[in-house]
Amino acid sequence: MEIRKLYAADAEKYWTLRLEAFQTFPEAFATSYEEAIARENPIQQAADGLEAVGSCTFGAFVDGELIGIVTLVQEMREKQRHRADIFGMFVKASHQGSGGGKALMSEAINYARNLKGIEKVNLSVVANNEGAKKLYSNLGFKVFGYEEKALKVGDVYLDEEHMVLFI
Q1: CA dist 87 → 71, 84, 125, 155 (Å)
Q2: What are phi and psi of 148, to 5 degrees?
Q3: What CA–CA distance (Å, rounded) separates 146 from 125?
Q4: How far, CA to CA in Å, does 39 sit from each of 11, 36, 96, 116, 135?
Q5: Which domain does 38 fall in, by range?
């Protein structure tokens, strides 16, 4: 498995995997599949996002196939520059349990450690996603908040746990 930073040239593979994530695990993301496919120029938007200042997206590759992604975004406001956030963590169902999630998260955490001034990394996870919560806890993240009805998928409400890792 290869873990590396994604660039604009990876936008099509990245966007294809994001769509799969939205379809496969709609409860895990704030963006719905329907919202995603309605975007204008989604590949260009993805390319721009992969090159955005303060943001770094990592991909996990197996035999050249992108099987997982995670994005780390550093806060830009002066009073929040000591923080970074994890977004869009996803590993294909066929590769879950293979160590890809841990490798992606470890790369993002190490990257954050090397950013000037970063003291903590935040993330949110759906409260019933036991696998993801176990991964994050094993990497040192601690729950600092619980939000009831954070997301609504159809008629189903989902709670989220907010986690932090001090680095």
Answers
A1: 5, 10, 10, 24
A2: -75, 145
A3: 10
A4: 14, 6, 28, 34, 32
A5: 2-166
**Count of domains forming the chain:** 1
Could you give the CA distance from residue 161 to residue 146 in angstroms, rounded to a whole number? 5
User: What global pTM score does this model have?
Assistant: 0.94
Dihedral sign of CA atoms 113, 74, 146, 105 in order: negative
Dump pLDDT digits (tens) for 147-156.
Answer: 999 999 999 9
Distance CA 43, CA 152 (A): 27
Residue appearing with tokens 């890792």 = 165
Could you give the 3-state DSSP secondary structure of residue 30? Answer: coil
Reported as a single tens digit per residue, the pLDDT across 31-86 is: 999 999 899 999 999 999 999 999 999 999 999 999 999 999 999 999 999 999 99
- The CATH number covering residue 56 comes to 3.40.630.30
Instruction: Give CA–CA dist 157/167, Å, rounded.
Output: 32
As a whole number, mean pLDDT of residues 78-97 equals: 94
